# Entry
Amino acid sequence: MLSRTGWREVPCVECGAFVPDIGFGDRCPSCLARRSRRATRIARRSALGLTALMAAWTLLHLPAATMGRWYALIGIPVTYLLIYMIVRRVAMEALP
Ligand SMILES: [Zn+2]
# Structure
């Protein structure tokens, strides 16, 4: 029986193993999982480092007892989440 792509098996673009139900230029599930783990690790480390820099800058440069500190406190986890999502997406596309 043919797969949804019309071919019986298609080679993985990364490892070359013939796998059913993938398209030309796609990766097999094991290569995709390995790539996802690497991208997640890079994204987590990048987000932690850059968020720590942002938090340190915020603590050093904002005056005490202002409403800005509370907004910065809210902004720190949001910064982590955004950096994590952006770096993970770029890493998934750009990893060799
Ligand atoms: Zn593969």
Summary: The longest strand covers residues 10-11. The two ends are 33 Å apart (CA to CA). Residues 12, 14-15, 17, 27-28, 30-31 surround zinc ion (CB under 6 Å).
